Amino acid sequence: MTAYRYRALNAQGKLVKGFLEGDSERQVRGQLRAKSLRPVEVEQANRAPAKGGGASLGGLGGQLFRPRISTGDLAMVTRQLATLVSSNLPLDEALQAAAQQTRSSRIKAILLQVRSRVAEGYTLAYAMGEFPQVFNEMYRAMVNAGEHAGYLGPVLEQLADYTEQRQYTGQKLKMAMIYPFVLVGVAIAVVVALMVFVVPQLIGVFANSQKELPLLTQVLVASSDFFRDYGLWVLVALVALVFGVRKLLANPKRRRKWHRLLLRMPGISRLLIALDTARFASTLSILMASGVPLLESLRIAGQVLTNLVLREDSKAVAELVQEGSSLNRALQQSGRFPPMMVHMVASGEASGDLESMLERSATNQERELEMTLGTMMSLFEPLMVIVMGCMVLLIVLAIMLPIFDLNTMVK
């Protein structure tokens, strides 16, 4: 059976929406009529709603309207499924119950479509493969391993923990960056407002004077005129520059060069490596704990690395392990993975507890990253206040210098 999305009119002529399962669109329409509903539109739940535009937009529509859900929603759904499956509820009924509990029509459509495939005899991992934008390769690999090993419930619990931790880490990073961005934005807005609206009014007092203005005042007047005359064009140019850079970085070769440059920048490289390798270690740990073979785990974990250079290093690590090298030697040979991570992997391989040591390594790196970001933000805030104060001081001095010399300027 397949899940279908429908819109229909009830007896009062009101439009209602929902989902039904059936073998065909015709059967679903029959179910609606049996409920005294007049069907207006019936289509498969995993198909993008028709927006017009014809077949020429088909490929673009498929890209734009692929179902996606947030990390928080994915964590919630995974936790619900883990609880229901661990309660020995049949998988198709667990999916049905999870779909009924959610208020999001998008999530409900996805879960019902997955349930339809499971009811047809497909595995859960295979059914989730129809929604790669929602259930990534790591997610499906763990589900597949859990199904084959017979402990899907515990694997889903691990996935829920992992997804919730990823959501928590992402929110923490976003919250850490909000204040600096707001502070920079306010600082720029204040300076631009002073230069465009305030400075011309004050400097206009000296416009009729034949006395040469101080150099600082001349620079301020020129800057004010530039912002007033070309400020909008500068803003347009900055927006165009951002889009142009994004367009250039869409090319894998240019993006790889950019990522390599980032890894050479002091300070930034340390943060990027810590963030990426922590995600790599955490993913590798949870995959191996779920029974996924090491080589397959390395291949999948490498996909979570956002830096293309580090991703190539992870492929080289997998090749060395495949040739018989130990994981810690392969990581060490790369030269970019943190030494502490390499030492903990070596300890885990020696003790036979590699999964927990990888998890501990990821936790340590995330803690270190959090402390580094906290330190940087603590330094950034007073630095921005000092910079802002210096800029305002220069503006005030540029205005006051002619006033101090007002007696000699007025004739």
Automatic annotation (TrEMBL):
**Domain Type II secretion system protein GspF positions:** 78-200, 280-402
Show the GO cellular component annotation of the record. plasma membrane; type II protein secretion system complex
Pfam families with a match to the protein in the record: T2SSF (PF00482)
- Membrane-crossing segments per the record: 176-199, 230-250, 383-404
Q: Which InterPro entries match?
A: GspF/PilC, T2SS_GspF, T2SS_GspF/T4SS_PilC_CS, T2SS_GspF_dom, T2SS_GspF_sf
Q: In terms of domain of life, where is this protein from?
A: Bacteria
Please give a single GO biological process term from the UniProt record.
Answer: protein secretion by the type II secretion system
Keywords of the record: Calcium, Cell inner membrane, Cell membrane, Membrane, Metal-binding, Protein transport, Transmembrane, Transmembrane helix, Transport
- Membrane topology recorded in Swiss-Prot or TrEMBL: Multi-pass membrane protein
Task: Please indicate if the UniProt record lists Nucleus as a keyword.
Answer: no
| Gene Ontology MF terms | metal ion binding
Q: Where in the cell is it found?
A: Cell inner membrane
Annotated family: Belongs to the GSP F family.
The role this protein plays is: Component of the type II secretion system inner membrane complex required for the energy-dependent secretion of extracellular factors such as proteases and toxins from the periplasm.
Q: Quote the protein name from its UniProt record.
A: General secretion pathway protein F
Q: Which organism is it from?
A: Mangrovimicrobium sediminis
Q: Which gene encodes it?
A: gspF
